[in-house]
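note to self — DONT lose this again. spent like an hour looking for the file last time. sequence + predicted structure for the chain T wanted, 370 res
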Amino acid sequence: MHAVVLGAGIIGCATAWRLAQAGVRVTVLERTLPGAEASSAAAGILGAQTENDGPGPLLDLSLASRALWPRFAHDLQASSGIDVQHLAHGVLEVEWQHPEGGDLLPARAAWMQALGLRAELLDAAQVHAMGARVHRLMKRWLWLPDDGQVDPRLVMQALVTALARLHVDIRTNAAVKGLELAQGRVTGVRLAGEVVNADAVVVATGAWTDLLGDLPARRTTVQPLHGQVVLLDCGAPPCLPTLMLRAGLDQAPLVYLVPRADGRVLLGATSDDQGFTKSATVRGLMDLLSQARAMLPELADARVLDHWSGLRPRSGDGLPLLGAHREVEGLIFATGHHRNGILLTPISADVTVNAVLGLRQRVDLTPFLP
């Protein structure tokens, strides 16, 4: 069996890796370079609880994928020799005091606890004991011990290495012109002057999904949403969990601080609708730095190592497109993950492999089918 994966981001490469492990011959077609877009721009927060606002299919999928991450990280290190820095060290949500503030974090804690998820409201003394500063304008703190992080760039390096060891063909600078269809099924992918035949085609093209030619009608659209990230060097590893700002000063956008084990701290992320333009903006960078300094004043003396931007693949209804197309046999989707691409990588790879091989799914894909 030959499967063609369109897109060499983290989800496309993870799917190709799992397919190759299952004995499928795989070709990956990438318009630029592996991991060059959203995968390398992501912070890597595994925020199954942090990134959800209540019960629903996305929460269920997120929790299922978070549970798969320890085994996924272990298998990937065994296949590549690269430690992807999977850390289940929790996320601390912070709520600022502001005139229009309500009871956001207690309400979030309540629905999580009702579902049996670990979530604890902390007081200032408990937060201080964790190593986090208590700013005078901080109102509440919510501790989510089961969320965590990985380093997406290490994950991409590990996946590319693992694919090379399995002799998977990754073709870069491969501009897909459209699909080859015959009698209700996909038979290949059309490039400039060439057709790559396939028994199955996996669409893992992220923000560029709707630009592919010949795609059949789908449940919803996938559009780019711009985000900026700043990387700081704090000199020594901060004794902190990941910090997530839930309600900013003057209703500023949500901000997060992700401490890496080597002393770096990643600040993210802005959220702007500006098409496929990826340029960083002064306003976005200033927002990130000012909010981060308010949360952790010692960051004022940190060195700025880098900053970058990327395009999240935002689906029109907020849910990723996962699974086999209802009308075109052999056409599988794994795209539209928006803010949760890294978190949902293990489950997305698993369900996509099952769809390609015609195996029974272990999760209900009904809300996510393309």
